[in-house]
Each structure stands twice: as structure tokens, then as C-alpha cells.
Write a structure and sequence with these properties.
Elements: H1 2-19, H2 25-31, H3 35-43, H4 47-54, H5 58-65, H6 67-94, H7 96-115, H8 123-140, H9 151-165, H10 172-178, H11 182-192, H12 195-222, H13 224-237, H14 239-242, E1 246-250, E2 260-261, E3 264-265, E4 267-272, H15 280-314
Antiparallel strand pairs: 1-4, 2-3
Helix pairs in contact: 1-2, 1-6, 2-7, 3-12, 4-5, 6-7, 6-11, 7-13, 7-15, 8-13, 9-10, 9-12, 10-11, 11-12, 12-13
């Protein structure tokens, strides 16, 4: 029971991460040592699993799919997304620099803790690290699409977001921003429980999760160190998205007037800048950045202790 409560908390941490543009739930899974288990559990929903279920061998089905683990993970993710979406809407509206600073610290520390799990640094590892960083940086220069509530497009959003959510270093919420549907899906639909939006997204997410987990599991098994190096690069490259001090750039028409959609200006990009004075706000943001680093360090230490205790119990 203690193990699954820990898994529930890790799932909640993934859920919180998935709400934040630029932060990856997969990163949380990787640094809390549940990433491989999660991928293997999801991909275990195969023909054998359905045969066990249809034949009434429920206990074998539960064991084959690691079902209790998955229930704990997705329960934590769901609870966090529902409970945190409204809070984040308030924080991003009133304290954007501070919330971005804290998450910048989280991801900065993640680069170290994920990278140190690579067992053998070869030239291929360095190459994939650079490639992952370059790919993540390239994503930050893409302009967001416009909002689209079509059923097929919402399913595609679910597929893309879920694949990126379980891929460390690649933010599902950021992908939704690029596809133009972050505000619609993660804020409005979650807060207002709009099933006409959430159901097609969830359907696409389910398809993407099962299909992508098989591919990722195979790659992880064959090229573990290179995969982690690539993911570490993704995480490092995503830091530019999380930089706390940024100017928001809005879409303008040919005459230089702001283009409005439903009464609101359309965001096209963010322009980072370095603060020139050490004001109280800047100092507090730096403290929160340090708190983010310490949070990941504490999470890593806690995960290590739980893993050690589990091994002793099993032994």
C-alpha cells in the first residue's frame, strides 16, 4: 500500500508538470525512477492481455499489465490536473515570473539527475545530447497555430500531447500551445468540465499512449544510454521556454493593430531578456529558482531511499 501511495504522489507530480507549458511529465517519471516501468506497463496491453481478460483470468490480467501501478499513476495525474488547473490559471495571471522561476529550477536540476543515469558516455551519447538540445530549441522558435475545436483536430492534439507528455524533456502542454489549443483544453475545458472537448482529446491520448509506448519501449531497450542522452538534451533545450523573464509578443495585422480572438490578443511568441537590476522581485525569483533545484534533489534522494527499501524488502 505504501508503494502505491508513493506511485500516486509521483503521478500527481507528473500531472502538475503536464499542466505547465515547457515542463514534461515524462521528466518527472524519469527522475523518480518509474519511467521504464510505466512504458512497459502501458505496452503490456497487448493480445495476451485481452485473452486473459476475456477468459476471466482477472488476477493474471492485473499482474500482466501491472494494473494497480497504472491505476495509481493515472489517478494521481488526473487528480493533479483537475485540482491544479484553476490554481495555475491564477498564478500565471498574477505571478508569472515567480512560477516560471521555480519551474526553471526544477528542470535545470533535472538535466543533471537524468544525465547521471547514463552508464556509459560514448561519442554517440554526446551526439544525441546535442541533437536533443537542438530539437528542443527548434520547437521554441515555432509559432503557435490558431485554436481549433474540430473533433479530428482535438484527437490529434490528444495523440501529440500524450506522446510528448510521456517523453522526458518534451512538454505536452507546450505542444498544445504550438497546436493552438492549450487555453481551450488545459484551462477552459478542464475548469468547466467540457466533455465535448475533453473526450476526443482523451481518446486521442489513449491511442497515442498505447502506440507510442511500444516504440519507446523498444528504443529504450536497444539503445538505453543514447535514448537517455537524447532525452537529457530535450530537457536542457526546453530551459529556454521556462526562462522567467520574457516579453510576450502578440499577433498584429498589416496596419500594426493587435489581432483579437474572442476579445483576447493572440500570443505568437515569447522574447527572453536578462533583468538589469537586482530588485526584490528578481531576488525572490532567484530564491524560488533555488527552491526548484532543491525540490528535485529532495525528490531524487527520496526516490533512492524508497528504491533501496523496496530492494531490502524483496530480498
Amino acid at each position: 500500500m505504501r508503494e502505491y501511495f508513493s506511485v500516486l504522489l509521483k503521478g500527481a507530480a507528473m500531472g502538475v508538470a503536464n499542466v505547465i507549458p515547457g515542463v514534461s511529465g515524462g521528466t518527472i517519471a524519469l527522475i523518480t525512477n518509474i519511467f521504464e516501468r510505466l512504458i512497459h506497463a502501458v505496452k503490456s496491453f497487448d493480445i495476451q492481455a485481452f485473452r486473459l481478460l476475456l477468459s476471466g483470468r482477472i488476477r493474471s490480467f492485473i499482474k500482466h499489465t501491472d494494473l494497480y501501478f497504472l491505476i495509481a499513476i493515472f489517478a494521481g495525474i488526473g487528480l493533479a490536473i483537475v485540482s491544479i488547473a484553476r490554481l495555475f490559471e491564477h498564478l500565471f495571471a498574477h505571478y508569472p515570473v515567480h512560477i516560471w522561476a521555480y519551474f526553471f529550477g526544477l528542470i535545470l536540476a533535472s538535466v543533471f539527475f537524468v544525465g547521471k543515469t547514463i552508464k556509459d558516455w560514448r561519442w554517440s551519447g554526446v551526439l544525441f545530447l546535442v541533437l536533443g538540445s537542438a530539437l528542443a530549441l527548434t520547437l521554441t522558435f515555432l509559432n503557435p497555430a490558431t485554436e481549433n475545436d474540430g473533433f479530428i483536430y482535438l484527437m490529434l492534439c490528444g495523440v501529440a500531447a500524450m506522446c510528448s507528455m510521456i517523453l522526458p524533456g518534451l512538454s505536452g502542454s507546450f505542444i498544445l500551445i504550438l497546436m493552438g489549443n492549450y487555453q481551450l483544453v488545459m484551462i477552459e475545458a478542464v475548469n468547466d468540465l467540457r466533455l465535448d472537448i475533453l473526450l476526443p482529446v482523451a481518446l486521442g491520448a489513449l491511442v497515442g499512449l498505447v502506440a507510442f509506448s511500444h516504440l519507446l519501449s523498444w528504443i529504450f531497450k536497444k539503445f538505453r544510454d543514447q535514448t537517455i542522452a537524447l532525452l537529457t538534451g530535450f530537457i536542457f533545450g526546453s530551459l529556454s521556454i521556462l526562462w522567467p523573464w520574457k516579453h510576450t509578443l502578440y499577433l498584429k495585422d498589416a496596419s500594426g493593430q493587435f489581432v483579437l480572438k474572442d476579445g483576447e490578443m493572440i500570443i505568437t511568441a515569447y522574447e527572453n531578456f536578462l533583468p538589469t537590476t537586482l530588485s526584490g522581485e528578481v531576488l525572490f525569483a532567484l530564491i524560488l529558482m533555488g527552491a526548484g533545484i532543491l525540490s528535485i534533489a529532495a525528490l531524487e534522494i527520496s526516490a533512492g531511499r524508497i528504491a533501496s527499501a523496496t530492494k531490502k524488502t524483496a530480498g
